[in-house]
């Protein structure tokens, strides 16, 4: 079996690593991929301007299965094109992907189908948006309507900061969403979905802010751990029944049924779980902790769903914990500096840890930084404390100029568990 995986970051490296464990998989080609994936997959570092061009590249590989890892090709309609060409593809159509690619579409859907979320307003005019702040209380949540690589959200502490964010975001996009600030703790709950059938995974928790103690700007994610105990069995069931299943059913009723991975960003509030936003694909860096804990065969699960057999899917998980620490380049997320030599990668193996490459380049026997988020260092252990300690022990082996990382991944949960 030959699989083509579209994407090039740490998420796709983790997916390729997991897919390669199926003995029937003879070849995995990641487009564009990266040289850091070479142990588990081939990579095809090509560029494309349109979804049709990408489809031509994919079809030239004659794959048995195509998996779309990142959101931009989904927004461009790559699944629709491949379906027209009779290619087996895992991912939502362009219309269904709007659950991520248009926050205004998603918020209107939540309102129409009474899916719990924050109150909001949608604006294309900066003056109207600024007037809306008068009936809101700080902090203010301002979001770009479209895709922004996880960095299109501003949480403004003051009215002045909010006004600046409104003006800046409307310069780069057609509309924005202003939301009520929800108090609580965030968590990620991903699920395999086909139509109205939902098969949820275990919960994870991402760390969006650049710096320790959730300080600094939002990023694409600086680390994650799973399972996340903040999602208790009761909250888990409530999130599945009041958020995931109703959203899948709503997309069916709206004429755009979803097939793929539906990822709910949750806020665990005093009133119960509410949806912050949805993504239409595997999370990053959540995938980097979920795949090492998934005891089921990922290839078989995806093939079952593509055959319309999601009702037969049963997921099994290791009784363990995983922690991922993201190593980022100097200047991230505002500006990316590349070309720094990465040292110590060969020493990580003795730490019994995994390294998923996100932004690296291999030249003449050395790896160099080649992106904002550079590496994902992951450890799996029987308990969360051991997983965190092992992950940071592995991180200590790696260095490059300007390397940034958080030192407190999973600390919030560890503190709560140790206080009990």
Question: Any descriptors?
Answer:
420 residues, 5-stranded antiparallel beta sheet, 27% strand, 5-stranded parallel beta sheet, globular
Structure description:
It is a single chain. With about 425 residues, the protein is α+β, with helices and mostly antiparallel strands. It has helices at about 10-20, 50-60, 70-75, 80-85, 100, 105-110, 125-130, 160-170, 235-255, 285-295, 300-305, 385-395, 410-420, and strands at about 1-5, 25-30, 40-45, 65-70, 90, 120-125, 140-145, 155, 175-180, 185-195, 195-200, 205, 210, 215-220, 225, 260-270, 270-280, 320-330, 355, 360-365, 365-370, 375-380. The strands form 6 sheets. The chain has a 5-stranded parallel β-sheet with strand order 3-2-1-4-5, sandwiched between helices. The protein has a 5-stranded antiparallel β-sheet with strand order 12-15-18-22-19. α1 (about 10-20) runs parallel beside α10 (about 285-295). The termini are far apart. The model has no long low-confidence stretch (mean pLDDT about 95).
Work out the number of β strands: 22
Task: List the quaternary state of the chains.
Answer: single chain
Kindly name the structural category. Answer: alpha+beta
* Rg, alpha carbons: 21 Å
The 3D shape can be described as globular
Number of helices: 13
Strand content: 25-35%
Distance between the termini: 49 Å
| Largest beta-sheet details | 5 strands, parallel
The pLDDT mean sits at 95
**Biggest sheet: strand arrangement:** 3-2-1-4-5
Poorly predicted tracts of residues: none
């Amino acid at each position: 079996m030959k699989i083509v995986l579209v994407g090039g970051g740490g998420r796709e490296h983790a997916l390729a690593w997991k897919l390669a464990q199926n003995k029937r998989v003879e070849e995995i080609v990641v487009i564009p991929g990266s040289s850091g994936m070479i142990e588990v997959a081939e990579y095809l570092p090509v560029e494309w301007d349109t979804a049709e061009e990408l489809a031509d590249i994919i079809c030239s590989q004659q794959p048995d299965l195509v998996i779309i890892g990142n959101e931009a090709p989904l927004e461009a309609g790559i699944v629709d094109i491949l379906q027209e060409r009779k290619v087996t593809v895992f991912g939502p159509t362009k219309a269904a992907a709007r659950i991520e690619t248009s926050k205004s579409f998603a918020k209107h859907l939540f309102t129409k189908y009474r899916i719990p979320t924050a109150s909001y307003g949608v604006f294309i005019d900066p003056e109207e948006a600024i007037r809306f702040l008068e009936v809101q209380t700080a902090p203010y949540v301002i979001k770009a309507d479209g895709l922004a690589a996880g960095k299109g959200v501003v949480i403004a502490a003051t009215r002045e900061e909010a006004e600046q964010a409104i003006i800046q975001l409307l310069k780069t996009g057609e509309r924005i969403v202003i939301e009520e600030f929800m108090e609580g703790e965030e968590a990620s709950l991903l699920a395999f979905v086909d139509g109205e059938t939902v098969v949820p995974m275990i919960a994870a928790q991402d760390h969006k802010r650049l710096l320790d103690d959730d300080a600094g700007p939002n990023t694409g994610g600086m680390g994650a751990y799973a399972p996340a105990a903040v999602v208790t069995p009761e909250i888990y069931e409530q999130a599945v029944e009041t958020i995931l299943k109703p959203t899948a059913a709503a997309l069916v009723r709206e004429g755009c049924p979803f097939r793929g991975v539906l990822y709910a960003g949750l806020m665990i509030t005093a009133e119960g779980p509410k949806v912050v936003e949805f993504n239409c694909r595997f999370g990053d860096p959540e995938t980097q902790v979920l795949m090492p804990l998934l005891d089921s065969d990922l290839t078989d699960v995806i093939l079952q769903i593509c055959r319309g057999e999601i009702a037969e899917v049963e997921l099994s998980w290791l009784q363990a914990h995983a922690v991922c620490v993201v190593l980022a380049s100097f200047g991230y997320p505002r500006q990316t500096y590349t070309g720094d030599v990465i040292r110590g990668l060969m020493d990580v193996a003795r730490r019994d840890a995994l390294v998923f490459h996100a932004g690296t380049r291999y030249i003449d026997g050395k790896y160099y930084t080649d992106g904002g988020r550079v590496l994902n260092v992951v450890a799996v252990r029987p308990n969360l404390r051991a997983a965190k300690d092992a992950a940071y022990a592995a991180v200590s082996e790696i260095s490059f100029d300007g390397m940034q990382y958080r030192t407190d991944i999973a600390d919030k949960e560890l503190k709560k568990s140790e206080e009990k």
